[in-house]
Amino acid sequence: MKVLDLRCTHGHTFEGWFASEEDFVDQQARHLITCPMCGDEVVSRLPSAPRLNLSTQRDAQTLARPAGAARGAGDAQQIHQQLQQLWLRAVRHVIANSEDVGERFAEEARRIHYQETPERNIHGVASPEEAAELIEEGIEVLPLPLPADFKDRLQ
Questions:
Q1: SS3 86
Q2: Reduced to 3 states, what is the DSSP secondary structure of residue 38?
Q3: 27 vs 18: CA distance, rounded Å
Q4: Strands (E), the chain
Q5: Distance (Å, rounded) from C-alpha 67 to C-alpha 88?
Q6: Residues 125/145, Cβ–Cβ less than 8 Å
Q7: End-to-end C-alpha distance for the chain, whole angstroms
């Protein structure tokens, strides 16, 4: 299994898992690889070093960098990538543990709030105006911005 670091033209970085280098090249040629953040089909491979999981190597790196030392650009990029992965994990969790009510989100949220239907976790689509009205009524909502075609690409 090959784990490759990838980036779309919008600068989103993510990992791709492939059976082999040839599998990656084949999928890329057929435009099957898309950015999970924005759906961009133009994806390039980033250079990556092999990762060795050696505790002595990690300990040596920790000792080599003094406490409070400034982080480099590579560290910032790694933190950015980790945040993207956490965001994707949170989105997957929300979608897996809630019912998609689509365009009926505001209506269904009100029905749940006013106990006209059983309480449950839902997600769907609401305009900014509808979300503001729900909040004014005391109904808790959390905006979760997703690209339009994101539902089909939770990889």
A1: helix
A2: coil
A3: 9
A4: 2-8, 13-18, 43-45, 99-102, 122-124
A5: 31
A6: no
A7: 16
- Is the Cβ–Cβ distance between 13 and 5 less than 8 Å? yes
Residue 65: Cβ within 10 Å count: 12
Sign of dihedral through CA atoms 81, 85, 86, 90? positive
Measured distance CA(20)–CA(31) in Å, rounded: 17
- Positive/negative CA dihedral, 129, 134, 138, 143: negative
Residue 121: burial class (beta carbons within 10 Å; 0-12, 13-18, 19+): exposed
Q: Residue 132 corresponds to which amino acid? A: A
Token code pair at residue 2? 């090959």
State pTM to two decimals.
0.50
Per residue in 25-80, pLDDT (tens digit) is 999 999 889 888 878 889 999 887 655 555 555 555 555 555 454 555 567 777 87
105: left (phi over 0), alpha (psi -120 to 50) or beta: alpha
CA distance 33 to 26: 10
